[in-house]
Each structure stands twice: as C-alpha cells, then as structure tokens.
Amino acid sequence: MGYVSNITRKIVFWNYPRTSWQWDVLCVVILIFIFLTPKTWFANTAFQRSHTLHTVVIVVVGGKPDKTEAERLAKETAGSPNGTISDTREVKDQTGKILRYEVDIR
C-alpha cells in the first residue's frame, strides 16, 4: 500500500525530477486534456442565451431619422421589443451625411 500512495503523492504534488520520463508523461496528459476537452464542458449556455448580441443595420433613406426611431426599428427588426440597446453607431459617408445606424441589442 505504501508504494501506491507514494506514486499518488508524487503525481498529485508533481514531485518527479524534470528530466524523468514520468515528468514527460504528466506533461503529455495535461496537453491531451487541454486540446481534447470539448468546449461544451466549459460553456455556460444559459448566460450565452440571455446575452446574445444582435446588430441591426437601419438604412437611412431620404431624410435623417432620429436615434430613438432607429432604435425602435432595430428592436422591431430583431424581434425583441423588450431588448436593451447597448450601442448605437452612426455610419457616415465622406461628406458627413448619415448613411445608416448600426444598433446593438441584447
């Protein structure tokens, strides 16, 4: 029993010399874990579903709509009337005329 507990203690506390084959095996096991672990093990899907970001582009035709109208249209287009606006960006051409609004909705 002492032999097994000695090996277990060395593995848990990483007590092998750096030039030993045991060190190399432990490193390979760690690399295998890092690269072959499925992403779903670490994904918090409830958080991702509640914080999905939608970017909606509202094209300005004719006059200049105000920001609140663009946000209302973006919520309507995204299908989330109770969504919160996290960012609104104006996209302008070279002359400074507003071409469209990009609205991020959570």
Tell me the layout of helices and strands.
Elements: H1 2-12, H2 21-36, H3 45-50, E1 54-59, H4 67-78, E2 85-92, E3 98-105
Antiparallel strand pairs: 1-3, 2-3
How far the N terminus sits from the C terminus, by CA atoms, comes to 58 Å
Percent strand equals 15-25%
Number of strands: 3
- How many distinct domains? 2
Radius of gyration from the CA trace? 28 Å
Average of pLDDT: 76
Structural class by sheet pairing and helices:
alpha+beta
Strand order of the largest sheet: 1-3-2
Task: Note the total helix count.
Answer: 4
**Which residues sit in consecutive blocks of at least 5 with pLDDT less than 50?**
none
Largest sheet: 3 strands, antiparallel
How would you sum up the global shape?
A: rod-shaped
The share of residues in helices is 40-55%
> Order of helices and strands, N to C?
HHHEHEE
Feature tags:
2 domains, single chain, 3-stranded antiparallel beta sheet, alpha+beta
Task: Describe this entry's structure for a reader.
The protein has 106 residues and is α+β, with helices and mostly antiparallel strands. It contains four helices and three strands. The mean pLDDT is 76.
